[in-house]
Amino acid sequence: xxxTKFFQGILLLLPLLVGCSMSxxxxxxxxxxxxxRGASKDAPENTLAALELGIRQGADGVEFDxxxxxxxxxxxxxxxxxxxxxxxxxxxxDGRSAKVSELSLAELRSLDAGSWLxxxxxxxxxxxxxxxxxxxRGRATPVIEIKPEDIGQDVAMIVQKLSIxxxxxxxxxxxxxxxxxxxxxxxxxxxxxxxxxVSDDSVERAREHLRIARESGASVVVCNYxxxxxxxxxxxxxxxxxxxxxxxxxAAVMRLLMERGIDGIITNVPSVLRDLSGRGK
Length: 281
Fold this sequence. Notes:
- The chain is an alpha/beta fold.
- The protein is built from 13 helices and nine strands.
- Strand 6, helix 10 (202-216) and strand 7 (220-224) form a beta-alpha-beta unit.
């Protein structure tokens, strides 16, 4: 049975990890390349095509965003509405709401989610959460960003239903969403997303982010890359947490962050980070 690349390292280290926390074991696996909304520079974000391309470009994990439709389905979408990444205005001219939470799955599936980026992706559909998980199963770790704070348990129940708990990573800007997810699946590794500067002092900033992460049950702090100076990263590591950053597409910035000891980078161009990290073919 294939094992996700994201977790292969842990299998080799099992003898060393007996008695270690999941956080400790996870850290031992090394630097992570995470494709942002799939390989979203080259394919339409949050589509199956983008997820597939993220895998092909060498990502360890493929990140995507989850919303809930008006009729209760979990689907992939970054924005609250579908205006930016679909042809909604061409399909529906009756004045109905474009919010994901007010559309049915059938309405979402009638939209073209690819042409806005390129004609090469015309007809690409908005995927369901389950379709995304199955696309990535055994190939790359699904890095699931929970958008609305009240769907944490819904996300967890789908993960549980598909028996994919050991393969996923879950993150959110909402501590409530993380906490709610953990009520169903406490053993899954999660990350607290933040872009809040909080303090000009790097150590104080790290400590505040760590406080919120701990309270929500997260073991990874996922911050805006501009907040991750060397002192910040060192303080996170001193507290035995991991730290990832988003969203970095510039090779020089990637290199600087890796030199500082960052544990993972979320990027729209995973192939660039793959080559920079020495994993390119």
